[in-house]
Write a structure and sequence with these properties.
Subcellular location: Membrane
Number of strands: 9
Transmembrane segments: 31-52, 58-75, 82-100, 106-125, 132-154, 185-203, 210-231, 300-319, 331-353, 359-377, 398-424
Low-confidence stretches: 1-6, 584-593
Distance between the termini: 69 Å
Number of helices: 26
Shape: elongated
GO biological process, one term: transmembrane transport
Mean pLDDT: 86
Strand content: 5-15%
Largest sheet: 7 strands, mixed
Number of domains: 2
Protein name: Sulfate permease, SulP family
Keywords: Membrane, Transmembrane, Transmembrane helix
Oligomer: single chain
Helix content: 55-70%
Length: 593
């Protein structure tokens, strides 16, 4: 059994929970998965760096040290961290207005943002705030991803068609710019881009075992080389990525000046929330398939440490990569060693393949990113949301259009804010049902049917939801309507088993209603009060106000006690036998309307 001290500091050595159990079988399986993962990340990393406005080699750097650190200090066996589409899009959207993409100033801002994101992730993990990602609903993620996908495609129009235009700004700005330059389309560049796109589609559909990104990039590069050999580059005008640095990730340092921190803080928060949501969601999904559980707080810590370390090794924001993690799982990875091996292997591969990047056309990258963007739009899930819920549809739509026409990082905040507003609107209106004993049902069970007779003196009500400051207005309105429409029903019994929570204001609402009923010669009664609710009502003073004898744990006991307090002269003239306690009279039911 772990001591309290070792439990307290276990977040520093989470790898000790799985490392001692690694044997030859695990190492062999993880090594094979690492080889496949390292090959897959090569084209992805370059593509994502292009999206982020970073030099291509920085995408590779983001798949090295961050992947190793996240695997060591996370809790998932299969999650692989690195550059992702969403993080890259947000990075470009936020930083392209501050500095020229690809410039030294831009890179410095990106590394500073990475450090800030890592610091926020680490702080949230240490504060045990792993549940924070639950506030980003699935509809927000789907809407944001779809909006980001359109922006990715729009920002690659200049490379896809080989025209000189400004690809910054919002979607409508980019489309207007494209319209102004549409007559400048380069046929050779467009041919390379379209060919790359078609090759990628063909391999993805008919040869899924072969990495379609690698096949598409090789195919597009060969077509570009052929066109240049036939017509000459001065005629084709096909631009290439250029040779990548062949060394190891250079050391770097974030620029933590006050101005940079203030400027980057909103973006850092947005990236932090979305990056953690992405990582934890992927981790949970793979854990469910693998039959184990992950620790959300430890994942926060692992992601935070990976980005902090990455910012000193020329890596921009890294988070859980769905593609790499899925490939890692499918390739048979057993432990986090697979992600560690993949990061180390990538460090060794880059010096070998870096010189060949000079043959990679930017048009091929654009065609590949068109395919990536298409894959990001979850049409099936969008259709499901549109059919299932108007509220979730509104969240999806607001997030989607905010991503297109506002600053991308604020689209997340807009979606989360609307989700919370809709949630509060729903919880502020707890379901209130009027009930009465139904003689036609066994044991005269309570029924909400309108043709069931009600007691002239006692009204029975069920409240399903929480009584808190946001819902008291709705509940008080129901109380007011009841007194106005049925003033003769001076007694009110509330079935409280549907009430999960009561705050001070909710308790005071019950206290006020109890006093009004008492002043009118009646009373307020609570039936089936839960243990936790009883304690909350005691703290609010509601038990004292209603009287401890007016709170009941069973329906039958409540009805017997309340019946003793009814006006018997009214009972004598009542034509209905509502309760078994009403005495021997002919049982009647009201005529159907």
């Amino acid at each position: 059994m772990q001591s309290p001290i070792s439990q307290r500091w276990s977040w520093l050595i989470p790898f000790m929970s799985w490392l001692p159990g690694v044997g030859r079988t695990e190492i062999k399986a993880d090594a094979l998965a690492a080889i496949i993962g390292a090959l897959v990340v090569l084209p992805q990393a370059v593509a994502f760096a292009t999206i982020a406005g970073m030099p291509p080699e920085y995408g590779l750097y983001a798949g090295m040290v961050p992947a190793i650190i996240a695997a060591l200090f996370g809790s998932s066996r299969h999650l692989v961290s690195g550059p992702t589409t969403a993080a890259s899009v947000v990075l470009f959207s936020a930083l392209s207005v501050m500095a020229l993409p690809g410039s030294p100033d831009y890179v410095t801002l990106a590394l500073t943002l990475t450090f800030m994101v890592g610091l926020m992730e680490l702080a949230l993990g240490l504060a045990r705030m792993g549940t924070l990602v639950n506030f980003i609903s699935h509809s927000v993620v789907v809407g944001f991803t779809a909006g980001a996908a359109l922006l990715i495609a729009a920002k690659q129009l200049k490379h896809f068609f080989g025209i000189e235009m400004d690809s910054g700004g919002h979607l409508h700005d980019i489309l207007i710019q494209f319209g102004h330059h549409v007559l400048e389309i380069n046929p050779a560049t467009t041919l390379v881009a379209v060919s790359t796109l078609l090759i990628g589609i063909a391999f993805k559909r008919w040869l899924p075992k072969i990495p379609y990104m690698i096949a598409a990039m090789l195919g597009g590069s060969l077509i570009a080389v052929g066109l240049d050999a036939w017509l000459g580059n001065e005629v084709t005008g096909i631009a290439t990525v250029g040779a990548l640095p062949a060394g190891f990730p250079p050391l770097s340092a974030p620029d933590l000046t006050f101005d940079h921190i203030k400027e980057l803080a909103p973006t850092a928060l947005a990236v932090t929330l979305f990056a953690l949501t992405e990582a934890v969601s992927i981790g949970r999904s793979l854990a469910a398939r693998g039959g184990y559980r992950i620790d959300g707080n430890q994942e926060f810590i692992g992601q935070g440490l990976s980005n902090i370390a990455g910012s000193f090794f020329s890596a921009y924001v890294a988070t859980g990569s769905f593609n790499r993690s899925g490939v890692n799982y499918a390739a048979g990875a057993r432990t986090p060693l697979a992600a560690i091996f993949a990061g180390v292997l990538l460090i060794g591969i880059v010096p070998v393949v870096a010189p060949y990047a000079s043959y990679l056309p930017t048009a091929a990258m654009a065609g590949l990113l068109f395919l990536v963007a298409w894959g990001l739009v979850d049409f099936k899930e969008i259709g499901h949301i549109l059919k299932a819920s108007k509220r979730e549809t509104s969240v999806l739509a607001v997030t989607f259009f905010s991503a297109l026409f506002l600053e991308l990082e604020f689209a997340i905040f807009a979606g989360v804010l609307l989700s919370l507003v809709l949630y509060l609107d729903r919880t502020s209106k707890p379901r209130i049902v009027n009930l009465a004993p139904d003689p036609r049902l066994p044991n005269r069970a309570f029924s909400c049917e309108p043709d069931v007779a009600q007691c002239p003196q006692l009204h029975i009500m069920r409240i399903d939801g929480s009584l808190f400051f946001g819902s008291v207005a709705h509940v008080e309105s129901a109380f007011d309507r009841l007194r106005a429409t049925h003033p003769e029903q001076k007694h009110l019994a509330i079935l409280a088993d549907g009430i999960n929570f009561v705050d001070l204001q909710g308790g005071e609402t019950l206290v006020r209603e109890a006093k009004r009923r008492q002043d009118d010669g009646g009373g307020l009664y609570l039936i089936n009060v839960k243990t936790g609710l009883w304690e909350a009502l005691e703290r609010c003073g509601c038990i004292d106000a209603t009287g401890g004898r007016n709170v009941f744990q069973a329906k039958n006991a409540a009805i017997r006690a309340i019946y003793q307090k009814l006006d018997k002269s009214i009972c004598a003239e009542c034509p209905w036998r509502i309760f078994t306690e009403c005495g021997a009279g002919q049982r009647k039911l009201p005529a159907s309307p």
